[in-house]
Amino acid sequence: MKNKSYISTVIANWKMHNDFNAALDLVIKIFSYSNMAKNVEKIICPPAVNIIPLYDQFKNSTFSLGAQNINENNEGTYTGEISVNMLKNYITHAIIGHSERREIFNESNYTISLKAKALLSNKIVPVICVGEPLEIYKKNRSVEFINNQLFEILSKIQTNSEILIAYEPIWSIGNKNPADPVYVEKIITKSKDFLSTIRPIRNVNHKFLYGGSVNSKNVLDYTKQQNIDGVLVGSASLDASEFGKIVLQISNNG
Questions:
Q1: What is the torsional sign of CA 175, 184, 8, 4?
Q2: pTM above 0.70?
Q3: Could you say which of 107, 168, 185, 206 is catalytic?
Q4: Quick check: is 168 catalytic?
Q5: First-last CA distance in the chain
Q6: Are 19 and 57 in contact (CB under 8 A)?
Q7: What ranges do the domains of the chain cover?
């Protein structure tokens, strides 16, 4: 059992969905369902264009506001990009290294490491995504693959600040094939042990989240595991009732 002071983390990743009116409506509905939920850290990551317009809604709520990505540079000739400096007064967290960004935008572990440094230097908590593709999973090389990602991203970072790691097996994202909770617990346990060997961050407070087809029917199967500290929710976070159920289940059963 997890200790009484333990707080789970739930992050909503809306991806590229919702114009401002739709985003505002969804936030209001989510707050109405689960703003009073206790013993759970709640973070919503809307598209970047909606972060600042939504900021006032979050001021008096129990939710935090996060970004889905940032550029690793503070400023410069990077057309279309958004720096941490532009968002640091509005967000508490930022997702980096999501598998979609790795695959579609060719982001490397090195780039993700630079993004983590930029966030930490601005006192923003990075939510670092790691996870293996199907071919690695089938070869039983998941632990080796994920630990290599962690090492390349974190081994040159010096910090005492909190870091979140989101384990998202690529083969379980956006489909009806979520990873087995016992398997996820095994992977995360081994990765937590590995993090303790990375000298610069071995004493850093960190949590491991699971992301991959999480919904209200399976969320407790993950969060009841000893080393799974929360969830990163994709499509289910676009439904206020469904996301509210996820938050409340964790709150009531944490």
A1: positive
A2: yes
A3: 168
A4: yes
A5: 9
A6: no
A7: 8-253
Q: Which two tokens stand for residue 183?
A: 């398997």
Number of H helices, E strands in the chain: 10, 8
CA 40, 41, 47, 49 dihedral sign is positive
Rounded-to-integer distance, Cα 71 and Cα 75, Å = 9
Q: Region 44-64: what's the mean pLDDT?
A: 97
Among 98, 100, 132, 206, the active-site one is 98
CA distances from 155 to 146, 158, 164, 191, 209 (A): 14, 8, 15, 14, 20
Which letter, b or e, does each residue of 202-241 get, where b requires 16 or more Cβ atoms within 10 Å of its Cβ? eebebbbbbbbbbbbebbbbbbebebbbbbbbbbbbbbbe
Tens of pLDDT along 102-138?
A: 999 999 999 999 999 999 999 999 999 999 999 999 9
Amino acid at 140: N
Alpha helix locations (H) across 14-171?
20-34, 48-59, 84-87, 99-104, 109-121, 134-138, 142-154
Tokens 């109405």: give the residue: 32
CATH 3.10.150.10 fits 8-253, yes or no: no
Residues near 132 by Cβ (< 8 Å), separated by ≥ 6? 141, 142, 145, 146, 169, 170, 171
Write the pLDDT tens digit of every residue in 147-195: 999 999 999 898 888 999 999 999 887 667 789 999 999 999 999 999 9
Q: Sign of the CA dihedral 222, 224, 228, 232?
A: positive
Decide if 98 is catalytic. Answer: yes
What does the block give as tokens for 89?
């007064």
pLDDT band at 202 (very low <50, low <70, confident <90, very high): confident
Residues 6+ apart with CB under 8 A from 121: 84
